[in-house]
Amino acid sequence: MLKLHQPLLVDKAVKVLFWALTFFTLIILFFILGFLLKKGLPVVSWEFLTQPIRDMGKSGGIFPSIIGTIYLTLLGVVLATPLGVGTAIYLVEYTRESRMTRAIRFGADCLAGIPSIIFGMFGFVFFVITLKMGWSLISGALTIAFMVLPTIIRTAEEALKSVPQGYREVSFSLGSGKWQTVLHAVLPRALPGILTGVVLSIGRCVGETAAVIFTAGSALGLPLSIFDSTRTLSVHFYILAREGISMENAYGTAVVLVLSILLINIFAYTLMNRYISKNS
Amino acid sequence: MKEKLIQKSLFLIATSAISILVLITFFIFKEGSPLFLKKGFFSVVFGSDWSPIEGHFGVWPFIVGSIWVTVGALVLGVPLALACSIFLVEFAPKKLRLWVKPAIELLAGIPSVVYGFIGVVILVPLIRVYFGGTGFSVLASSVVLAIMILPTIIGISMDSLSAVPPSYREGSLALGATPWQTVYRVVLPAARSGVLASVILGMGRAIGETMAVIMVAGNAVRIPGALTDSVRTLTSNIALEMGYAIGDHRMALFATGIILFGFIMVLNISANLLTRKK
Amino acid sequence: MKKKILSMILGCFVLSFVGCGGGSSHQTITIAGSTAFQPFAEKLAEIFMSKREGVRVNVQGGGSIVGLQAIRANAVEIAMADLVTLPDDIVDPNGVFLNAAVAKDGIAVVVHPSNPIQNLSISQVGDIFQGNIKNWKEVGGDDQEISVISREKGSGTGKSFEDLVLKGARLTKDALFQDSNGTIRETVSVIPNSIGYLFMGLLNEKVKAISLDKQAATEKNILKGRYKLVNKVFFIWNKEPDALSKEFVEFVLGEEGQKIIAQEGLLPAKDIKI
Fold it and tell me: Domain C2-103+233-268: which topology?
């Protein structure tokens, strides 16, 4: 009851406490980043980035993993983007709110919530074994495409919705058809928003391990076709660290991995911010 | 004519998400559900003996394990995350918020294997020294997961706090309430559903996380009796044994997947209902 | 327009893959299975590829059983398994597969380097892994609880260990599980009161291998038949293999491959018979 009599004091105390907790949270998060950078940055060199993996990762660099990660991610995103954007266009431009659209949205939400290990399990049984694609770029890419589809749908939907109605009206009044309107009036306006979602998905693909290790495998070589297996950076890091093959190279790989994801995400956020300030 | 065709094909594309969901669900159930018929649903779900080679497939220890680490993560993570989001939205200068929010969201991008690895090299030895046991424990998993879900919860709950109209706050302040009273009595209740949804999503992330947990949990097949005991979750059980499973054993891993799926669906649907109400 | 551009990008992308894959003369085989043998297979593949231009040998882990599953599904050319006995359909002489042991290795029982224990009898090890012995004091060590670390159920090394040491008895419920030989080594190296087991070829200074029944875990003792915990690694491949798979299997079973296996710390399959 004492508290109620001194609301201002309580107010002060809460503010200080929350300030401290926020500070604590930030410290944890930045400690992780700083720890990695301190241990890993000295390992990263031009050679480390461009040499093949030697001796299972004990020596040499991580070049094949970098390339494998890029291939896998791009392929996955290229597969997912048309589906995601198409879905969003249908939801925003071609239908009104109905049971169907709600079902589609619900489906996307559920898909977004499925843990990556289930995607990995499914991809392994379906793509690798049943469809006989083996551990390969294509099995991995299809699996992660499924995984990031909801993100792309959601962001594209938001982007399309935020295009002012006026654009559509002007286009219609000029005699354009629906598709032309979407293509020439709506999509260009929504493009940065859509791209943000795509870039965020790229970040997610790069960091994924559980779904990728069971589908794209862990071969050390440079992938030369979509049916080759590859070991992405996160899988390589996982194996190096878990098996204690080389802690040094593990830290180096982690730094490359984390920095590239941070850069990708920063790119996405700048894109989004610019887009928001332009639209408002 | 062309318009019709486009509309048709867009509709087809739009069904892709559901089709994929159905495909995955179908596959997991096709591979896993025969075990429930064979061994009995209750003996699988509530059985506590997991010895796949001998044909005992009780997944109860993993269900309990998943619940333990998830609850642990929420207990540690939610208060921190909420304090953080409330401070940033309500009390902090706007400039600070503009910097800190993206920074926290960027950290959501750190891959889970990295969190797990840092857990192994820093957290596990600390727990071994200060709390006893091997260090590979419920506590270690909970702490790692708590840190991992921070960005998710902070991001979404900050959004829903910011979405509360300023007039609510102005009204409350004008009536003589302090800023904290305003937050506690007016803003939080107004943002309740969004905040809850963020917690549920964080919970989903915690229960679904695999690699980080495998690395710090120790993975013993047993119901943990203490925070310093080793634990195995539903997800780690799948990932650990998938490479070695054959016949009924494999079926049992998919059955584990079905149970995990059930948990996730319940969480998804509740998050969905919460956000829709708004 | 946008769609056209998109499909063009997609087209270029696919072409660039096909271009570098199909166009060149690269021939690829995949070998998958045993995680214990994976590092050795990677080494073998690395050397094999350095000798033969334009071929690729992809090495996957996954686990012994995954390797077998994959070769049944035709998803890989060669499977590697470190099981004590291979499944019936694989060894069936009328079936579609051939198999051969490519390497042998001892399974070393390891403890933390700070642990004073030097020797245990196999039955003591069995009791520890069953949970009948719970404290190092009971076997002459420090007064410390024992943390048992095992491979997960069904793994090749784990299966062999259970067959040879536990002989049908149940592993203790308190055991921690790790999913590869390397992770067992890492885990034992950070838990002072722990005990685990792994391929002898993967031992390093981070853990200490103890003697079993007074026999040190050395190559010599295995060759003389004095160290009892020995495991084989099999390659399994199709009866009618493609030229490259055949060549690789021959390379591994040949003098050079066996020499590499020996250099890397395993025992060649050819020299000894058990």
Answer: D-Maltodextrin-Binding Protein; domain 2 (3.40.190)
CB A157 within 8 A of CB A196: no
Provide the shortest C-alpha distance from residue A225 to chain B (in Å): 25
Distance CA A195, CA A201 (A): 10
Q: Taking the CB of residue C99, how many other CB atoms lie within 10 A of it? A: 15
Which class does domain A67-231 fall in?
Answer: mainly alpha
Single pTM value for the model = 0.88
Sequence-separated (6 or more) residues with CB below 8 Å from residue C85 = none
Q: Give percent of chain C above pLDDT 90.
A: 35
Among the partner-chain residues A110, A146, A264, the one whose CB lies closest to the CB of B268 is: A110
Would you state the pLDDT for residue C270?
67
Domain C105-223: assigned CATH number: 3.40.190.10
Low-confidence residues in chain B, pLDDT < 50: 278
Can you tell me the mean pLDDT for A171-175?
A: 90
Find out whether C30 and A202 touch, Cβ atoms under 8 Å: no
Chain A CA closest to residue C44: A55
User: Is residue C9 within 8 Å of residue A78, measured between CB atoms?
Assistant: yes
CATH class given for the domain over B50-276: mainly alpha
- pLDDT of C23 reads 38
Q: How far apart are CA B101 and CA A104, in angstroms?
A: 31
**What pLDDT was estimated at residue C17?**
45
The ipTM (two decimal places) reads 0.91
